[in-house]
Description:
Strands 2-1-3-8 form a 4-stranded antiparallel beta sheet, covered by helices on one side. A 4-stranded antiparallel beta sheet has the order 4-7-5-6, with helices on one face. It has helices spanning 7-25, 40-43, 71-84, 121-124, 154-164, and strands spanning 47-54, 57-63, 100-107, 111-112, 131-136, 139-143, 178-182, 184-188. The two termini are 22 Å apart. The longest helix is centred in the N-terminal third of the chain and has 19 residues, at 7-25. It is of the alpha+beta class. It is built from 5 helices and 8 strands, in the order H-H-E-E-H-E-E-H-E-E-H-E-E.
Amino acid sequence: MVENLSWNEKKILLHIARDALTHAVQQKTNPELKLKKLPRQIQNKGASFVTLTINGNLRGCIGSIEAVEPLAADVRRHAVDAGLSDPRFPPVEPDELEAILIEISILTTPLPLECPDPRERADCLKPGIDGVLIRSGIQRSTFLPQVWEKLPEPEQFLEYLCQKAYLPPQAWKQADVELLTYQVIHFDEELLTSSSE
């Protein structure tokens, strides 16, 4: 599990994401990812989300909750999927590439939210820190911690998360609906213009 990343490791992941997105949008074959030449930390299994924005507006976001492949490969795959396979948006066009800002979020392992009373789960969250995963049968959805910037009230945050999972807005209060939380390390391409830490 990836717990922390150096400035250089973040920079490498951003380059991997940018290269993968560019090749995919331009319908070119991605070169082989040479994992053994990468820092060990990003060879480890990791779960990530890749978010694309243009002028602050969402243009695509795809990721995984569970770490099943090397972090570098996970980031690479989700960069392509965010650009071409987010069902909310048409595929990214080549002339959009220059305007896109790539953000990467590396997730910790989700753990059940500890809260004695399911109806008080909103009070047990840490706004701005917790990402939240909701599960009910086959229905599931997640909000990254960054979503708190747009939905700062915990109850509203959970209601919108329920709606995203096609559940009733108050479903988060039900004991048979699972809520799990995780944290993220997140960084975007503005890091590339800064000096090393």
